[in-house]
Write a structure and sequence with these properties.
Elements (H helix, E strand, L loop, with lengths): L2 H4 L19 H7 L3 E4 L7 H10 L3 E4 L9 H4 L8 E4 L9 H8 L11 E5 L2 E6 L19 H8 L19 H8 L5 E4 L11 H10 L3 E4 L6 E2 L7 E4 L5 E3 L4 E3 L5 H9 L15
Parallel strand pairs: 1-2, 2-3, 5-6, 6-7, 7-9
Antiparallel strand pairs: 1-10, 4-5, 8-9, 10-11
The structure holds fe (ii) ion (FE2).
Length: 283
């Protein structure tokens, strides 16, 4: 039984139908394959994105969350915006403080946030699901605690609101209402921060969304792992690593860097010294 049917809870409400974007010809997908780049979590560093844009001149770039820009996003990317169409989805760390939030949601690129919608990017329909699943709201496959931002706000009351609405942290939480709205649409590519079910920390809910959208490709960030996965359900997932950049076909433009969390973990474990090695008893 499909994820959708197993979890067809009564909370599902009628959603507003978005206008259906026309599917591109396969030749158009082929043409676009070298012209759209997907960028793994930048975490405050954008030099490689600027350099790749200058060198390869892609038509569009999509950033897969955890941008944490050091200045408003349009200022950070100022040198390339005249020739590259830059789109983004938020990651969980993009609501860590007011600065990161404002540099994205109040930047001139705020309208290029793909979360919860499908947009035409260089001729391809790209659907976005930014943020993460959080247990307080919804941790699939469990039933959600809240179906929408509105229902959560009504419960927490005025005192816990942020800027008159949803607490900042939950502005990067995935609500069922956003997910359900996407389920009714069609796209060629799905970009997510969370990984699909083929990753050990991924979610089948992402696969189900990709299936409903009838996409051919999924690109995800968050796990900081450069991963090629086999195709299934008609789509090919690709995990884009920490500060890596890949094409639509999944080829590396900029190889991913090692996740600093892994470096730290490695450095905490010093190499085994001779004195601590078990010695073989002789004689
Ligand atoms: Fe990240």
């Amino acid at each position: 039984m499909s994820y959708f049917h197993r979890h067809n809870h009564p909370y599902r409400r009628k959603v507003n139908k978005e206008p259906v974007l026309k599917a591109p010809e396969s030749a158009e997908i082929e043409r676009a394959s070298e012209e759209i780049f997907f960028c793994g979590d930048p975490h405050g560093y954008f030099d490689h994105i600027l350099k790749a844009a200058q060198e390869h001149r892609p038509k569009a770039m999509v950033i897969l969350g955890d941008l944490q820009p050091p200045a408003p996003l349009h200022e950070v990317l100022e040198d390339i915006l005249s020739f590259v169409d830059v789109w983004w989805i938020p990651g969980n760390h993009d609501t860590d403080n007011d600065y990161f939030y404002d540099r994205l949601w109040r930047s001139e690129l705020a309208s290029h946030n793909l979360h919860g919608r499908v947009a035409l990017v260089n001729g391809l329909r790209i659907a976005g699901l930014g943020g993460v699943f959080r247990g307080q709201i919804w941790m699939p496959p469990l039933s959600p605690n809240y179906t929408s931002a509105g229902s959560f706000i009504r419960r927490i009351g005025r005192g816990n609101m942020w800027r008159g609405g949803l607490p900042r942290r939950h502005r990067t939480s995935i609500f069922p209402s956003t997910y359900d709205n996407l389920l009714t649409q069609k796209a060629d590519v799905l970009v997510t921060h969370e990984a699909p079910g083929c990753h050990r920390k991924g979610f089948l809910a992402v696969d189900q969304l990709a299936k409903n959208l009838e996409v051919k490709y999924i690109f995800h960030g968050h796990q900081h792992e450069d991963r090629h996965y086999p195709s299934y359900f008609g789509f090919t997932p690709r995990g884009v690593g920490y500060r890596g950049i890949v094409t639509l076909k999944g080829d590396d433009v900029v190889p991913a860097q090692i996740d600093p969390r892994e470096v730290e973990a490695y450095e905490e474990k010093p190499p085994m010294s001779w004195s601590s090695m078990p010695l073989k008893r002789l004689g």
